[in-house]
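Teaching note: in complex prediction, the entire set of molecules is handled at once rather than each chain in isolation. The prompt given to students was simply: 'Predict the structure of this complex.' The entities are:
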Amino acid sequence: DTGVSQNPRHKITKRGQNVTFRCDPISEHNRLYWYRQTLGQGPEFLTYFQNEAQLEKSRLLSDRFSAERPKGSFSTLEIQRTEQGDSAMYLCASSLARGSNYEQYFGPGTRLTVT
Amino acid sequence: DAKTTQPNSMESNEEEPVHLPCNHSTISGTDYIHWYRQLPSQGPEYVIHGLTSNVNNRMASLAIAEDRKSSTLILHRATLRDAAVYYCILKETSGSRLTFGEGTQLTVNP
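The expected output is the structure of the full assembly:
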């Protein structure tokens, strides 16, 4: 257990529905990241926050995806009008950014299945 | 992000050392070499990172070639729990994201 928690762990939804995932990072960590992982591939970066500011978004993050980190604590990732191609593991990570390099601590992920 | 090349899979026997190679011929002077691993049904886990000198920690050692175009992650005594996908990642000093490749699937035989 890294101290990063994600809920729910599994989500099954019908195509066209909206889903929201939550990530609770390690409490003193100021950076929070979202990644997506499909079967047999490495995780792909989606977006990251420093405190409450969203500083970078991948081109993978279409208009149907939105992420928030109110008050710089937990974060939510919402997918609107889900498509079958959204089926994946959604991973959250956090880090304490100091100096030029630092490790990221990953949560267990939320597995999304769109039927 | 600079690219890394790793073998798709490797096998080892329990309690023997394992050397996982990574090529990164296009590495820039400010790129750090990071290793993460992912056990089945879990998120990735940080293993080790380095810039130029070899590094040791409680999990592993990282040997970096003099020209920095390759590196090797060394597990000194493999256990069954070390069976995982190992990712070698180049991370820019100022960058935030980790760019994962497909990694090396390590199988540890009892």
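Point out the following to students. Chain A has a mean pLDDT of 93. Chain A touches chain B at residues 2, 4, 31, 33, 35, 40-45, 48, 55-56, 58, 91, 93, 97, 100-101, 103-109 (CB under 8 Å).
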